[in-house]
Amino acid sequence: MKKLPIEEVKSYWDHRIKDARDSWEGVLWEGLPIWNTYIDKLQMYHLRRYVRQIKRSDCILDVGCGIGRFALRFANICREVWGIDTSATAIKICTDRNILNAKFECMDVRRLDFGDATFDWVFSVTCLQHITNEKDLAASIGEVLRVTKNGGKIILVECTTDKRKDEYVISLPRRKWFEIIENSGGKIQRWYGVDIPFLRRIVFLALGLTRKITNSGRIARLFEYAAIIVLLPFEYAVPRILKNQSWYTVLLISKQTDKSYKK
Q1: For the chain, which residues score pLDDT lower than 50?
Q2: Beta-bridge partner residues of 192
Q3: What is the model's pLDDT at position 217?
Q4: Domain 6-195+243-255 in this protein, CATH class
Q5: What are the extents of the domains in the chain?
Q6: Helix axis angle, 217-235 to 197-213, nearest 10°
Q7: Phi/psi at 206 (nearest 5 deg)?
Q8: pLDDT tens-digit map of 164-181
Q9: Residue 119: what are its φ and ψ, rounded to 5°?
């Protein structure tokens, strides 16, 4: 499938956030509030080992912060968090929360307006995957590495497959992501999968069928709950064992030049 230019992708997300206002449907799945709560909990489950390592003195960058789903959590446990996004609407929503140690700026990750070695942690959760060409993806990863301190950690949660046919998401196999990261000066310290694609496809087919055969929002919500109950035990455990089957990957990255790195 032909991928949209980045400017069109940026416009798409800005409109999504405007339409959804202060709702996760602007940054996750439209019309699936219960599913979005599940996805959020699953992502936090996979990030928890790193979040627990954040120190009160740390400075964090949240790339593609959206409406502040992660940045506002980080603000409770670190000295300072910066959230950046290309959506002015998202940045206004975050800024209006008036969190003293959380700062938000409209900024493009390809050209970060921060000095070298500024952050102890950089997080990107399903953001870089929306950079739809390899050249700009490499530039973005290079910028993320540049602003990370020696001894700092970069955590990515991204779609790393060429099987997803979506005009808003880059289609690259995991090995290509690894190659781009390493060629940009990064070193992958750890990675694992976070989803079971064939089970999710079955769930979404069933959700679509449910919406076609009934107009009842209550039945649709009940089915969302049922789908989560079925998926939950599998997605918390199986992707770590069969990680090559996953489409989404958690990556822990350091600088190649960093000799002080400790997991």
Answers
A1: 261
A2: 250
A3: 67
A4: alpha beta
A5: 6-195+243-255
A6: 170
A7: -65, -40
A8: 888 999 999 999 999 999
A9: -115, 145
